[in-house]
Design goal:
Elements (H helix, E strand, L loop, with lengths): L4 H16 L31 H7 L2 H9 L17 E5 L5 E4 L3 E2 L7 E2 L15 E6 L6 E6 L5 E6 L9 E4 L4 E5 L3
Antiparallel strand pairs: 1-2, 1-9, 3-4, 4-8, 5-6, 6-7, 7-8
């Protein structure tokens, strides 16, 4: 090694330290409207430009608690638990399509359940409207499901669903807005 190797190593260490704090996410296919959304030319997500006060005006108190404060609606209380209509479930905060009624099933748990997110192809969720995040807030390790576009808390996903995916996306009704299919 030449005499400047330590300088190169020091610069690399600084760069790695700076990158360690960044989260890299794929931009959704649909993008985000308005400022503060996704930068289509980047793999990083911009901070949401919607303030807490704006969310409080847009959402009901229960919707705000669940989607912005990571709350949970009581089991068997959600309006979409027994919904059998054909259509799409969208994010109540930003209207991003999240789950198709074709993937909905009755899990008996008290929340609407789905086998996969809309836009999923096999195990590839890069075009889905959701992100998965580790969640240890309850004292156990779970996987939180959030909207990819606005980061609204939707619910959790568990590995005890029906085949072939064996997934149970357990989603709060108040985090969703159902749009029936047109005949």
């Amino acid at each position: 090694m030449g005499p400047g190797w330590w300088l190169v190593a020091g610069v690399m260490a600084l760069l790695l330290r700076a990158l360690r704090g960044l989260r890299f996410l794929r931009a959704p296919a649909l993008g985000c409207s308005g400022s503060g959304g996704w930068d289509a030319g980047s793999l990083t997500k911009c901070k949401s430009s919607v303030s807490k006060d704006e969310w409080l005006k847009k959402l009901t108190p229960e919707q705000f608690h669940v989607t912005r404060e990571k709350g949970t609606e009581p089991p068997f209380s959600g309006i979409y638990l027994n919904n059998k209509e054909t259509g799409m479930y969208h994010c109540v905060c930003c209207d991003s399509p999240l789950f198709s009624s074709e993937k909905k099933y009755c899990s008996g748990t008290g929340w609407p359940s789905f086998t996969e997110a809309h836009g999923t192809s096999g195990s590839d969720e890069s075009h889905a409207g959701i992100l998965r995040r580790p969640d240890t807030s309850s004292g156990s390790v779970r996987t939180e499901v959030v909207c990819k576009q606005c980061e609204a808390h939707l619910g959790h996903v568990f590995p005890d669903g029906p085949g072939p995916t064996s997934q149970r996306f357990c989603i709060n009704s108040v985090a969703l807005n159902f749009k029936p299919s047109k005949p």
